[in-house]
Design a protein that fits this description.
The structure holds 2 protein chains of 2 kinds. Chain A is mostly helical. Chain A has 3 helices and no strands. The chains are: A mainly alpha, B mainly alpha. Chains A and B meet through helix 1, helix 2 and helix 3 of A and helix 1, helix 2, helix 3, helix 5 and helix 6 of B.
Chain lengths: 100, 169
């Protein structure tokens, strides 16, 4: 039996790595990949609680998180392709038309 | 025995995700994330979520990451590798990381977890994980399930409209 805190610490570490990637990288695709990593870190926590409480709800929410991640990937990549169409824009700080 | 496998999978996940965040080449990053998801599927199996482990590999490693790789093929990877890779906002990241770390430390230090409940089913028992998950998903969570399908439809239409070459008016 794996202790509950192990799942929580693993989820927290992965979430921190993903958050650092989102905040520190310029490449838009790497930022999207880091967001996927953060969503999966949440899934680790959900599944850990599902195991701990012997309740299926955590796993059901894991499925919903995967659904949202698929939507996010599709829309995010469509935006990236639209940005890449006229000129090469792969870095998020180059997209500053609406920036104050 | 179980715990050593957990440490192995967790260590693999942390290693591959750290490598993923630091790569300059996005194709390497995407493939490293696939590896992370395989380790994650191992963690799910250890936690008794066999269906989620299968979905993780089929949908994430097989579906979403292939979508990423196809999109990367449409972009210019060679140019991006030679650019500056990091934002110059180290102070912001440091403060955010310290705050998040303190928060997690406080939560994990304070909370006392009750003794874990025992699964009513075990590996190979009936009903298995898939059957139990389906029974909950299609009864108690039927409405969120339908909302998720509408969300997928909206994302599909949105992706098609955004990625279209020209929009007719």
């Amino acid at each position: 039996m794996i202790p509950m805190t192990h799942f929580l610490v693993l989820g927290a570490i992965l979430f921190l790595i993903g958050a650092a990637g989102v905040l520190m990288r310029r490449n838009a695709i790497i930022i999207l990949l880091s967001i996927e990593l953060m969503l999966n870190a949440v899934n680790v926590t959900f599944v850990g609680f599902s195991r701990h409480l012997a309740d299926m709800t955590g796993q059901v929410f894991g499925i919903f998180v995967i659904t949202v991640a698929a939507c996010e990937a599709a829309v995010g990549l469509a935006i990236l392709i639209a940005l890449n169409r006229d000129r090469t824009m792969v870095n998020v700080d180059e997209v500053n038309l609406l920036k104050w | 025995m179980e715990i050593y496998f957990f440490y192995m999978f967790a260590g693999g996940m942390i290693l591959t995700s750290l490598l993923m965040v630091t790569r300059a080449n996005v194709i390497h990053a995407a493939l490293l994330l696939v590896l992370t998801f395989f380790f994650l599927a191992g963690v799910f199996v250890l936690a008794g979520a066999e269906f989620l482990a299968a979905v993780q590999i089929l949908l994430y490693a097989g579906g979403i990451m292939v979508l990423y790789l196809f999109s990367i093929m449409l972009m210019n990877v060679e140019v991006a590798v030679r650019m500056r890779q990091w934002h110059r906002q180290g102070v912001v990241v440091f403060v955010a990381a310290v705050l998040l770390g303190l928060e997690i430390w406080a939560v994990l230090g304070e909370v006392e977890f009750a003794a874990p409940k025992q699964w009513e089913w075990s590996l190979g028992a009936t009903p298995g994980n898939v059957e139990a998950l389906g029974a909950v998903l299609y009864t108690k969570f039927l409405f969120p399930f339908e909302v998720a399908s509408v969300l997928l439809l909206a994302a599909m239409i949105g992706a098609i409209v955004l990625a279209k070459r020209t929009i007719e008016r």
